[in-house]
DNA sequence: CTGAAAGCGCTTACAG
DNA sequence: CTGAAAGCGCTTACAG
């Protein structure tokens, strides 16, 4: 640590070439003479040379780092979703020598980080409708990709799961399991996910010719799920329930049980997310799984692409969800 | 983004001073004349100047970033513990202008990141006994802090919770709740946490004059908890159980229930960690809580300190755990 | 207290 | 294909 690292200069001297040539070898420029290249490569390995990133960044104007922006409350960090995003992103950027920096959603900080060239672009997860950050970033023409369809349409790159298709998966499953009186606890209906999941569920039940399901609005929280379940208890006929998030389902399940509904015998329940609560709750939850790691990897790819070619048109990708069947249905 | 950011040079020209003076103002050097300082500050705010970090890093030889090293399997990332660490670290380093970089535990990458001066130091969480990384880092004299006492004693900075005291908290609580026949499902006994929690538990029960508890070794996994609980079923007298991790407890609880043990009526259970499974399982778990956020903040502080003063002796900090009482006891 | 100047370690036109 | 040279945007002794 105290010993100064080897520089390009020294490698060049040892190899008997110019710094430019060493630089070309390090950066894989094809036009270097084979023999020279080998001499340089040997010098690099004997010295253990590794390029100083700050020096490179200074001239290339690239930080070699992207940011993962967390919502300011910091609540999300506790969410297993967050970890899945990280494990999806890391394998795609590491081979590119790009770092992943965690940062809070403070607007100034994010914009500053990019302006200081400490970050080449950012991935935004869990943005709310009121969040001005996405718009600010695209207006500043800074590379950004969202982890979900934006609340209001805008020209921004995003990756999402087909929410409606996921809800339809849940409906189809409940119906094919014999349920005839469906109900759903929705997400907040001002969010795209809340809307799309409800729509997908309603369309699928209609497609099967079943009567209109009972709809109770939730808020994606455990408490919200419990409250909604309480309401649902009033309707004794319900035999199939789609809860638009696993977290709400963990709130709903104990209420349903205390209300005398046996799951899955008398009432089948399907969640959404396949988050860790789905595995831990009792009974373990049948749920709609988003391919979060794959989605995150795609976000990373799109962002890197955008950093390299800021002029390219924005493009978005939608993934197909799958159903994970456990004991609640 | 296309428009080039403002540089020191331009601010200096506008303020009518040298670059050196602007640099001094930006870095808060006290010796700058009041009036000059104000002129410079005005120039900074009108231009919206913000320093280029790569340029600064190049001369200061500081990356202005620390790494949070994840175990290679990537499993840990799904763990809520990880998120708590992040939310503890971020608030202490952001005001210092230091970035938090996520990286996998690949040895070469970590060492390279530090040698390339992309990282000033690292926080290691979830290291195993066989992991050579901690030793490699201290031998290379690179700033590092561990999230727990190292398996083998070495001269390294770490932060830990008083594991034995936490286990004693559990024992005291079970005993004061009327339990007389105690048992414990331990962690893997080759880990410091496994050892210390067992020792603390045994010492506390002995202190109360109770007979030696039943001890079944676990492995900190859900499945391990289930398996150990199965063994425990053989002993009908047990009325108080300390499970050395919440995750194991979530595996144990269903087994105990199916074995006819009612929790908490016939058998009181206490976990360790206060992780999210503790809240989600049925019944919600009384558990020993580690002040993870505080511990993480301290890790960040110690690391930053170490980066600034590599010559200082290593120092470690041990935090006191607390008991969170829920329905399982 | 302030400025001129050197230098941090790279990359990249530009000649040749 | 290769090298000499300029330059990226800062900080920091060193004079004054």
UniProtKB/TrEMBL annotation, chains A, B:
Specify the protein name: LacI family transcriptional regulator
Q: Which UniProt keywords apply?
A: DNA-binding, Transcription, Transcription regulation
A Gene Ontology molecular function term of the record: transcription cis-regulatory region binding
Source superkingdom: Bacteria
Q: Which residues form the HTH lacI-type domain?
A: 6-60
List the InterPro entries hit by this protein, alphabetically: HTH_LacI (IPR000843), LacI/GalR-like_sensor (IPR046335), Lambda_DNA-bd_dom_sf (IPR010982), Peripla_BP_I (IPR028082)
PROSITE patterns assigned to the protein according to its UniProt record, in alphabetical order: HTH_LACI_1 (PS00356), HTH_LACI_2 (PS50932)
Gene3D superfamilies named among the record's database cross-references: 3.40.50.2300, lambda repressor-like DNA-binding domains (1.10.260.40)
